[in-house]
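B., you asked whether I could sanity-check this one before it goes into the benchmark set. Here's the sequence:
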Amino acid sequence: MQYLIQLLISGLAIGAIYGLIAMGFAVIYKSTGLVNFAQGEMTMITAYIAWTISTTVSGNVFVVAVGSILAAILLGLIIERLVMRPMLGEPVFATVMVTIGLAVILRSAINFIWDAYPHGLDIGMGRGIVHLGGIGVRTGQIAVIATLLLLLAAIWAFFRYSKVGVAMRAVAADDRTALLMGISATRVHALAWAASSVIAGIGGVFFALSYDLSPAMFQLGLKAFPATILGGLDAVLGSGLGGLLIGITENLAGGYIGSGMKEVAGFAMIIIVLMIRPVRHLRRTRHREGVMRTGDYKQSYGELVALIDSPPVWLWSAVLLLALIAAPYVLNSYALSFLMIILITVTGALGLNILTGYTGLISLGHVGFLVTGAYAYAVLVSKYHMPPLVGFLGAGVVPALASLIVGAPSLRLKGLYLAITTLAFSFIINTVILEMRWLTNGARGIQVQRPEIFGISFDSDAAFTYLCLGIAGLTLFATLNIRRSRVGRAFVAIRDNDTAARVMGINLHAYKLFAFITSAFITGIAGALYGIYLSFVSVEGFPFLLSIEALAILIVGGLGSALGAVLGTILIVLLPEATRIIFSLFSAQMDATFTTGAQELKSMLYGLVIILFLRFQPRGLVGAWHDIRRAWVHWPLRY
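And here's what the prediction gave me:
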């Protein structure tokens, strides 16, 4: 019984921290209709600022508290003004991806501004032990629970009785009507971001008081998100109470089932809750109207579904193919490694493009299918000595079957809620892989050798490049043909307007599941190729950054375009290397900085590219190319 009480108390304490961060999510959504996936990173930065103040200025509780609150307010205001305000009115996917890009930048900045080592926040409180009925409780745990309850009461009174709170509710209900009533929506949004940053920052400071302060703290945002879903995205009080429930559930699962279950209990609750009580839609956003342009039109159905409708395109495609065939004989091993990565990444990006680009289903769980395909190949080939072709088949089939777990909720969910479900899947699948040690070797991973198919060895880099080229080429050809087929047109119809698609007789359930299965099959094969390239398959080799990279590729290249997936891959893969070369031109010190912090700079570049493209060129490189070609063809006319 004492063990159960201890679990409940510690669960309430960590749940209170989740609740504070979840309330930050809800405050922003309630006031702006935006979901901030950078909430965990903002929480972490506020905690680091508190630690910096305590170690360099003063360890006084009052000084640390005031300094941290002011820093959190400033951080929220800067993000709202520079990053989020220009994105108002944009589609849900765009705003979600901007906050994800922001999260990547803030997370990587931690290692540059501070370091990657754990630190303890000591301000003379929070680590003492109080005995209640024979059970030891940290004073920090008592303080965070009390703080959550006080903030819940204060926020309820704020939204209920204060003029500013009523104004925020009015903007949340209808910002246009609120504007006619003299309420400034921009001021309300700025206040919401500042308040969210402060509330979540308080949770981060309490976490640092009870546990170590480290860059891994960003995961608090991911763990707090289930509380927001459970309590309601626009329910501040419900999110706070949801955090308590998530904390208790995690602790009980970890205490009585296993530590692995503790990590995924909250995400499992997301899937269960959304399946039982789906939310039909997010708040509607007003999209910016596009400009109607004249141009060239297809005059027959055959022209409309033609694979390539331009002879020069055929010519340049043949030239590119010949160049790729000759590349292994011309490039050195370093350049050839980039070509292999590009071809593998193109395969995975084309798989995600079917789901997100063609069908419009936002997925943050791309890396889950990659790692599943890699492990399926490694287990079949390395552990059970199956032929490589069987391994590749398994690398596609196993993720395709796993996609049904994610695809089933897609029948009732869309938009952000579906993205959350796929995100939960990626965390759950990692835990499952680590727990199934008898099959996957757990954290030790599995060694993988280069394959031999039909007596042809792909052991050399040149031969493996040809294997990657063949698979990437077949994938590109298949996705282009899917796009112009009846199935592809159904995908696009669902993406553009699923209600209209249903009226036209399109079976939404069947086509959504088919999109998930097809995407997962292709992505799984890309995961197998990546595992072979690494020569070692482990969970650590497939970080969540790969999901961000895949979405960045689609955004940079152009959503819904196979050519865009190829162009986006080339830019995203070569961007870090191009940046390194530019850095090296200035000074050796800058080159050394890039070398020592390559992973962090790479992440920051991804985040920056996502934000800049969504802000200034939302149609990606393909859209820019179309604009340039149109201007060239119709010059000196504007259209």
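One thing to flag: The longest strand covers residues 129-132. Otherwise nothing jumped out at me.
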